[in-house]
Write a structure and sequence with these properties.
By secondary structure, the protein is an alpha/beta fold. It is built from 22 helices and ten strands. It has three domains: 191 residues, Up-down Bundle (ABC transporter transmembrane region fold), CATH 1.20.1560; 116 residues; 232 residues, 3-Layer(aba) Sandwich (Rossmann fold).
Length: 650
C-alpha cells in the first residue's frame, strides 16, 4: 500500500527503551562507511534524481487534464505521453544503479565487520571459548553484522530518501493549495494512534511466535544431530520426542493463525489512510473546483502526491527506532572486537628458530578465573534458539531446584580434586629428547599443565620456558610450529582425510602425507576405503572409529614435525588391536623429540625418563617407575589400583 506494515513491530518494545545512540558510537560507525563515501555520495545523487523525476508525473497528469485534452492540443498530448513513458524508464534505470551501489556498500560493510570479528576471535584464548555459547558467536557474526550493515546501506539511505521526498512533495503540494495540504496531513495522527494500538498486539504475538519457534528449533537442533539421534534411539524415545515436537509445532501454528488474522485487521487500518486522504482531497477539492478556485487536474495531481507523502511519513515516524536498533547491533559487534586479549604477543617477540626442546616450568600457578571484561554480555534475541537454556524441560528453574550436596571440612570427607587453583607452584625441567609421563587422579591438573605449553592459557604466576625463552617473549606462530598436540578427543573437520591431514602442513606432498600415515599405522586402512585419501570423514570424524581418528591425529602431528610433543594417549577405551597400533605409532612419533604424555598405559610409564605425579594441582612426586614405587606414596597407590593388573596380564 504505502510501505506501512513492517514498522509497527518495532514500536514501544522494552528493548527499544534501552536503545541509545551516542556520538562516539556514530563516529565509529561512520569509520566503517568511510571506504565507501564515493559510492554513498553517488547514491545520494541518484536519490535526488529519482525523487525529482517522481514529482513530475502528477504534474503531467494535471497538464494533460487541464490543458492538452480540453484544448485539443495534439502536440502537447504527444509530448506528455512520451514523458509518462520516459520518466518511469529513467527512474527504473537510475534506481537499478542506486540499488547496485547500495548492495556494494552493504556487502562491503558486512565483509569488513565479519573479517574484523573473525580475526579478533582467532586471537582470543581458550578461556573465552569455554565460557561462550557458540550460538552467541554465530549471532554476532551473522545477525548482528547484518543488522549493523543495514544502518549504513539501508536505514540511513532510507531516511534520506524519505526526508527528501516528504520535503519535496509537501513543497509542491503547498504551491498547489495549502488548505488541501493541511487536510492531507491532518489524518495521520488519527491513523498513528489506531495503528499503534493494533501494532502493540501484533508485536506481542510476533514475539510469542518467535519464542515458540525458538523452542521448536532448539529441540530439532538437540535431537536431530548425530549425538542426539543416537541417544533418542538407544533409549527408545522416538515416540516421546515426536509428541514433544508436535506440541511445540502446534503452538507455532496457533500463534501464526492469530497473527495472520490480526495482521489483516492492521492492513485494513493502513488502507484507510489512502482512502480517507483521497476522499478528503476529492471532497474538499471538488467543492473548490466548483467554486472555481482551481482545476480538476490539480485534484488528480494532489491525490497522486498523497501516495508519495504517506509512505515516507509513516517510515520516518519509526526511523529513530530502526536507526537505534542498528546502532545497538553495531555495539554488539564492537563489544567482541573490543574484548581484551588474554594471550598477547609482545611487539618485540622473538621467533623460535633452532629449538632443542628443553622445557621448564618455573613456579607455575594457574587459576581459571572468569573476568567479566573478557566475556560477552548476554543478549536476549527473541526467536534465537541460543536463548533457550533448558531445551527439553523448558523450565528455567530446574537447575535452581536441584539439590546441591553440601560440602564440609570433616576429616572423614573423601579426598577430592575440587579446589580454586588448577595448578599450584609447579616446577620441573625436561631435557631435550626426554619423555615425561604425567600421572595422577582425574582432575589433578594434568591437562591444564599441557594446555599451558602451547599458550592456550598463560600462567597466573610463574613462567614457562623453552630453551631458556619465556613463552611470553616468543611469537605465537613460531611457538605453535614447534609444538604438536594429540588430545584425547580428536577433532576432524567434515572434509576429506587429505584435507584434515594438510591442516598440519598446507604444502605437504602426497608422498609426505603417505609417509606420515604409514608411520601412524593408518595408511593401509585409508587405502582400503573406496575413495582413499579423498574419503570424507563425516561430522567430527563420526564415520571413523576412535582408534582410526586417533591414528589420523597422530599422522597429522607427524606431518607437522614439531620439536615438542604433548600427548594424551587416549588408548584406555580402545580395543587391543587399535591400542597396539597407536602405541607403535606413538613410539615412532616420540623418537628424538621432547615428549610430555598424560599416561593411561603402563608401557608409557615404564618407557618414561621421568614421571611427574600430580595431585590437587601440585607435583607431589617425581622420579622413575622404580624410584616412585620405592617411595610408597601416591604413585604406588595408583600403580596398585590402575596399572598392576595391566602388568600382570602382560
Amino acid at each position: 500500500m504505502y510501505g506501512g506494515g513492517w514498522w509497527v513491530y518495532a514500536w514501544d518494545s522494552d528493548q527499544d527503551k534501552n536503545n541509545s545512540v551516542t556520538w562516539p558510537l556514530v563516529k565509529r560507525v561512520l569509520g566503517y562507511a568511510r571506504p565507501y563515501w564515493n559510492k554513498i555520495a553517488i547514491t545520494l545523487v541518484t536519490i535526488l534524481i529519482t525523487t525529482g523525476l517522481g514529482l513530475l508525473t502528477p504534474l503531467i497528469f494535471r497538464d494533460l487534464i487541464d490543458n492538452a485534452l480540453p484544448k485539443g492540443d495534439v502536440q502537447r498530448l504527444n509530448v506528455l505521453a512520451v514523458g509518462l513513458v520516459l520518466i518511469p524508464i529513467v527512474v527504473s534505470l537510475v534506481g537499478m544503479y542506486s540499488r547496485l551501489l547500495n548492495a556494494e556498500i552493504g556487502e562491503g560493510v558486512i565483509f569488513d565487520l565479519r573479517t574484523a570479528l573473525y580475526s579478533h576471535l582467532q586471537h582470543m584464548s581458550l578461556r573465552f571459548f569455554t565460557n561462550t555459547k557458540v550460538g552467541e558467536l554465530m549471532s554476532r557474526l551473522n545477525n548482528d553484522v547484518v543488522n549493523a550493515q543495514s544502518a549504513i546501506s539501508d536505514t540511513i539511505v532510507t531516511m534520506v530518501v524519505n526526508i527528501v521526498q516528504v520535503v519535496a512533495v509537501l513543497g509542491v503540494m503547498l504551491t498547489m493549495d495549502w488548505r488541501l495540504t493541511i487536510m492531507s496531513v491532518a489524518v495521520l495522527p488519527v491513523f498513528i494512534v489506531l495503528a499503534r494500538k493494533r501494532g502493540g498486539k501484533l508485536r506481542s504475538l510476533r514475539r510469542e511466535g518467535m519464542e515458540y519457534n525458538a523452542q521448536m528449533n532448539a529441540m530439532m537442533n538437540e535431537t536431530l544431530n548425530i549425538g542426539g539421534t543416537l541417544l533418542v534411539k538407544l533409549f527408545g524415545r522416538g515416540t516421546l520426542e515426536t509428541e514433544r515436537f508436535a506440541n511445540r509445532a502446534g503452538k507455532v501454528r496457533d500463534v501464526g493463525v492469530r497473527e495472520a488474522y490480526l495482521g489483516n485487521q492492521f492492513w485494513v487500518i493502513v488502507g484507510m489512510v489512502g482512502v480517507v486522504g483521497t476522499a478528503v482531497v476529492y471532497w474538499v477539492g471538488g467543492h473548490l473546483v466548483l467554486d472555481g478556485v482551481f482545476s480538476i487536474g490539480t485534484i488528480v495531481a494532489f491525490s497522486a502526491y498523497l501516495g508519495q507523502l504517506y509512505g515516507p511519513l509513516q517510515s520516518l515516524t519509526n526511523s529513530p527506532v530502526v536507526f537505534a536498533r542498528s546502532m545497538v547491533s553495531f555495539e554488539r559487534v564492537f563489544e567482541v572486537i573490543d574484548l581484551p586479549l588474554d594471550i598477547i604477543e609482545k611487539l618485540d617477540a622473538l621467533p623460535l628458530k633452532e629449538v632443542n626442546g628443553e622445557l621448564t616450568f618455573d613456579h607455575v600457578s594457574f587459576r581459571y578465573d572468569l573476568r567479566a571484561e573478557n566475556l560477552l554480555t548476554e543478549v536476549n534475541r527473541p526467536g534465537r534458539m541460543d536463548n533457550i537454556k533448558n531445551v527439553m524441560s523448558l523450565d528455567s528453574d530446574d537447575d535452581a531446584k536441584a539439590t546441591k550436596t553440601p560440602t564440609n571440612g570433616d576429616a572423614d570427607a573423601p579426598h577430592t580434586q575440587a579446589r580454586e587453583a588448577a595448578l599450584d607452584d609447579v616446577s620441573f625441567t625436561i631435557k631435550p629428547g626426554q619423555l615425561v609421563a604425567l600421572v595422577g587422579p582425574s582432575g589433578a591438573g594434568k591437562t591444564t599443565m599441557t594446555y599451558l605449553i602451547p599458550r592456550l592459557y598463560d600462567p597466573t604466576e610463574g613462567k614457562i620456558l623453552i630453551d631458556g625463552h619465556d613463552l611470553r617473549d616468543v611469537t605465537l606462530e613460531s611457538l605453535a610450529s614447534q609444538i604438536g598436540m594429540v588430545t584425547q578427543e580428536t577433532h576432524l573437520f567434515h572434509d576429506t582425510i587429505r584435507t584434515n591431514l594438510l591442516y598440519a602442513k598446507i604444502d605437504a606432498t602426497q608422498e609426505e602425507i603417505e609417509a606420515a600415515c604409514k608411520a601412524a599405522n593408518i595408511h593401509d586402512f585409508i587405502m582400503g576405503l573406496a575413495d582413499g585419501y579423498n574419503s570424507v570423514v563425516g561430522e567430527r570424524g563420526y564415520r571413523l572409529s576412535g582408534g582410526e581418528k586417533q591414528r589420523l591425529a597422530i599422522a597429522r602431528v607427524i606431518l607437522k614435525n614439531p620439536r615438542i610433543l604433548v600427548l594424551d594417549e587416549a588408548t584406555s577405551h580402545l580395543d587391543s588391536q587399535s591400542e597396539a597400533l597407536i602405541q607403535d605409532a606413538l613410539k615412532t612419533v616420540m623418537a628424538g623429540r621432547t615428549s610430555i604424555v598424560i599416561a593411561h598405559r603402563l608401557s608409557t610409564i615404564l618407557a618414561a625418563d621421568q614421571i611427574l605425579v600430580m595431585d590437587r594441582g601440585q607435583t607431589v612426586e617425581r622420579g622413575t617407575h622404580q624410584e616412585l614405587l620405592a617411595q610408597g606414596g601416591l604413585y604406588a597407590d595408583l600403580y596398585e589400583t590402575q596399572f598392576k593388573s595391566e602388568r600382570e596380564m602382560v
